[in-house]
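User: Please predict the structure of the protein below. I'd like the answer in C-alpha cell form so I can feed it into my own downstream comparison script.

Assistant: Understood. Taking the following sequence of 194 residues as input:
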Amino acid sequence: MNGILVHLMRHGAPREPGLMLGHRDDPPTPTGVARCMLRAEHLAFAQVLSSDLARAKVPARQIAHARGATHRADRRWRELDFGDWDGLSPHDLDPSLQAAFWDDPDLCAPPRGERWSQLCLRVNEALCGISRDTLVVTHGGAMRAALAVLFGFDHRQIWAFEFAYCAVLSLRLWPDGEGRISAAQIVALDGGRL
C-alpha cells in the first residue's frame, strides 16, 4: 500500500505578523493568499481541509475552488490557543513567563491558554481522520504538533522546526485500519527548515 499523501501548508501572512496569534481570527493578506495558491499548484490532493480561522480558511477555500476539490474547515487544525497572550507582541509579555512557556509548554501554558499536549491530541485526532490524499491549510504550531505525534519529537526538539508563511510539509501516512496511524514518512519540506 502506498499510504496517504498529506500536505500541511502554513497559512499565508496575516495582516499583523509578529504577534502571538493563536485563536484570534486575523484575516490573511491578499499576498499571503496568492502565495498559498501558488504553493498548491503542483501538489496532488483529492480534498482540502483547513483550520476554521480566516488566515487558513480563506486560502484553503480559494485553492479548493481553483482545483475543483471539496473544502472543509476543522477546528482541530487551529493554532495553539495563547489565551491572555493572544494578539500580543512577544515583547509585551513577561520574559520569565514566556521563557517558562518555551521551556515547557505543557506545564507552563499561557494564562487561560491551551497546553501543548491538548494541541497534540486534537491534531492527532484530525490526522487519524484523513483517508485520502489531502492538503491541510493550517498553522505553524499545528504542523509542529503533527511532527511531534507522528515522529515522537518532544517539546524542546519541536521548536527547532521552522515553517515560513506558506511553507508546505508533505507527509506519507499509513493508517492501521483501526483509527490510528501505524507509520509515517516525511516526503518533502518546501519553505521551511527541519
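That's the full C-alpha cell string. Residues 28-39+59-75 form one domain.
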